[in-house]
């Protein structure tokens, strides 16, 4: 859990909150971010999945009338996203990929998302095609968002200290593509394609039974290895997987 007030202040500052801002926080923890968000925003809804930690935070933050603290999993709760303009999170690293897939499907709901992520994962979000760290997560992130790596976060800023370094990342919707681009089906297709990493795209398409959908795609893309195809090219390819095979 994040315990550094300085890091919390920097992360909240990056959100440019006003008295009209409405914030969704995922992972209240001990409330170090929650407190600062409630002091600056009009309304904060915060989720904490650990019920014991959640009740402790509820007692510590009871004085904030503009705060709604929910003991539960934000990824599993159906609620009205239109109420929010900002998302803030400092999640366990094991939840990073789940968070990315979730927020990509909500990319039209938030003007900005500020997140603390494991450095290895945040670097993956900005990886260039062909690099060892270029994965399905890179494509999801780069199609959905403009990505800014804001600052590093040391291990001592958490309790207990993790064995890896972290980075604060700012995500804003990619204006070049209609958002949200991703749904569960497109994410599932992309994950399957990247399971063929090191092999040609056509191999994955044949396994999926979709190769007949790609008569308009240049042969040099179809025969390229999956890790050498750009996010823009995947943005053209993935909708084709939703067409019926003739």
Short description:
The protein has about 250 residues and is of the alpha/beta class. The protein has ten helices and seven strands.
What does this structure look like?
The structure is a single chain. The chain has 246 residues and is of the alpha/beta class. It folds into 2 domains: 5-173, Vaccinia Virus protein VP39 (Rossmann fold, 3-Layer(aba) Sandwich), CATH 3.40.50.150; 184-240. The chain is 35% helix and 18% strand. The protein is built from 10 helices and 7 strands. The protein has helices at residues 5-13, 32-40, 51-60, 96-104, 119-125, 136-144, 184-194, 201-208, 219-222, 231-240; strands at 22-26, 43-48, 67-71, 86-89, 112-118, 145-153, 166-173. Strands 3-2-1-4-5-7-6 form a 7-stranded mixed β-sheet, with helices on both faces. Helix 3 (51-60) links the parallel strand 2 and strand 3 (67-71). Helix 1 runs parallel beside helix 2 (32-40), helix 4 packs parallel to helix 6 (136-144) and helix 6 packs across helix 10. The longest helix is centred in the C-terminal third of the chain and has 11 residues, at 184-194. The protein is elongated and about 60 Å long. It starts with a helix and ends in a 6-residue tail after the last helix. The mean pLDDT is 93.
Supply the key terms:
single chain; 246 residues; Rossmann fold; 7-stranded mixed sheet
SSE inventory with pairings:
Blueprint: H1 5-13, E1 22-26, H2 32-40, E2 43-48, H3 51-60, E3 67-71, E4 86-89, H4 96-104, E5 112-118, H5 119-125, H6 136-144, E6 145-153, E7 166-173, H7 184-194, H8 201-208, H9 219-222, H10 231-240
Parallel strand pairs: 1-2, 1-4, 2-3, 4-5
Antiparallel strand pairs: 5-7, 6-7
Helix pairs in contact: 1-2, 4-6, 6-10
């Amino acid at each position: 859990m994040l315990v550094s007030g300085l890091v919390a202040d920097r992360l909240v500052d990056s959100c440019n909150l006003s008295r009209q801002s409405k914030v969704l926080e995922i992972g209240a923890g001990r409330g170090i971010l929650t407190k600062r968000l409630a002091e600056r925003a009009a309304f904060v809804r915060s989720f904490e999945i650990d019920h014991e930690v959640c009740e402790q935070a509820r007692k510590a933050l009871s004085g904030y009338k503009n705060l709604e603290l929910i003991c539960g999993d934000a990824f599993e709760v159906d609620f009205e996203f239109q109420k929010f303009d900002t998302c803030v999170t400092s999640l366990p690293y094991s939840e990073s990929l789940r968070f990315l897939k979730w927020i990509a499907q909500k990319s039209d709901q938030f003007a900005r998302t500020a997140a603390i992520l494991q450095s290895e994962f945040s670097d993956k979000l900005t990886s260039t095609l062909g690099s060892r760290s270029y994965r399905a997560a890179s494509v999801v992130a780069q199609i959905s968002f403009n990505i800014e790596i804001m600052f590093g976060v040391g291990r001592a800023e958490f309790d207990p200290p993790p064995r890896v370094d972290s980075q604060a990342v700012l995500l804003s919707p990619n204006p070049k593509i209609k958002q949200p681009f991703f749904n569960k089906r497109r994410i599932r297709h992309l994950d399957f394609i990247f399971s063929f990493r090191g092999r040609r795209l056509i191999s994955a398409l044949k396994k999926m039974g979709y190769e007949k959908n790609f008569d308009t795609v240049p042969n040099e893309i179809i025969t390229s290895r999956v890790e050498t195809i750009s996010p823009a090219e995947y943005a053209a390819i993935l909708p084709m997987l939703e067409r019926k095979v003739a």
